[in-house]
């Protein structure tokens, strides 16, 4: 066996050192088939799961519901003439314009503000936690949150509580005068006596229409005593006896009093006196009420405030967008917070030294430096909302599902719902692809600019 000598050739069996300036060759360059061999499984999956469905969807969109008759572009014409699909397109535009913007803005605010508090990690954990919940579970949660009944729906429970804090509830909602009681409707839900009140006679005001369960705990009605100062007195009660019997217009034993009813004395269109019934249903008006007509204002009978119809036609889309923001604001916050951690603090301090206030530092330094991260978050969320399906399908009730419709949901309904037409469904799929492609191209160009 020979060894290499100084300046001589290398010993047999050992590669010599690379000669400076000689281009290095790789296995991929010398054996390109090897690279294609490694890429083949990925290309097969890409073709089967991405390319083939796209090509077939375009092909299928040119045929009728049965898939046998060629209709050309008729399915695409239907996309812009069918009211349901037009509603879905409009709602998708609202989603793309509102949801990503709100999520990104909230994420930016949370990321910047939590840097200044000691419990920032706990706050970020709580905000990000909804991301661990599936869309299905989140939809079920918010379907319950938006229930109309305040006893079941959290949103209306809070809303009704705030409303009732500043606005008193009616005393006996749904109550109405007994026929032939002398009370006539005076407009706006109020009732006024046909005859003027007389201090010599009790002005009893019989009502009906109060559910028996609402009278649980109510005291028995009692006849009113005559007022000493020449005023007007009377009783407001439920003129109904359980089991039948009793005389109309007369306070029979066991009939219940209506406490808290407001009684007004009206003369020439002006209220001259008011009184409120006590626990036994009696009230007493001062002498000014003598000769005036008595009125029960509408505030006594208006139905209790039942909150907002969150799942109604006008609010269903904003309500579902709010549930989406609840889930994805944490995602935006985490990404923006990661980008904020890489912002040079020297630039922020230099801006403060130059006299900039915190708002100017945020607007002119922090936001421009975070622009690439904000673009990533915004584009990601835009692509995500274009294919939103789960939340709309679960939260929107059947009566208003058409008002909350989006393209992904309409694709499912057109393809597999009643009167399925997979030609139209395929056309919707192609439209969704065309809407996503510009966003993807923008994202790819942005990534290339950042690398260059």
From TrEMBL:
Residues 89-443 form the ABC transmembrane type-1 domain. Residues 1-24, 170-233 are annotated as: Disordered. GO terms for biological process: carbohydrate metabolic process; transmembrane transport. It is a multi-pass membrane protein. Residues 1-11, 194-207 have a biased composition (Low complexity). Residues 12-21 have a biased composition (Pro residues). Its main location: membrane. Gene3D superfamilies: Immunoglobulins (2.60.40.10), MetI-like (1.10.3720.10). CDD domains: TM_PBP2. The chain crosses the membrane at residues 33-55, 93-113, 125-146, 324-344, 365-386, 423-444. It is found in: Cell membrane. Coiled coil: none annotated. Keywords: Cell membrane, Membrane, Transmembrane, Transmembrane helix, Transport. It holds the Pfam family BPD_transp_1. SUPFAM superfamilies: Cna protein B-type domain (SSF49478), MalF N-terminal region-like (SSF160964), MetI-like (SSF161098). It comes from the Bacteria. GO terms for cellular component: plasma membrane. PANTHER family: BLL4140 PROTEIN (PTHR43227), DIACETYLCHITOBIOSE UPTAKE SYSTEM PERMEASE PROTEIN DASB (PTHR43227:SF8). Belongs to the binding-protein-dependent transport system permease family. This is ABC transporter permease.
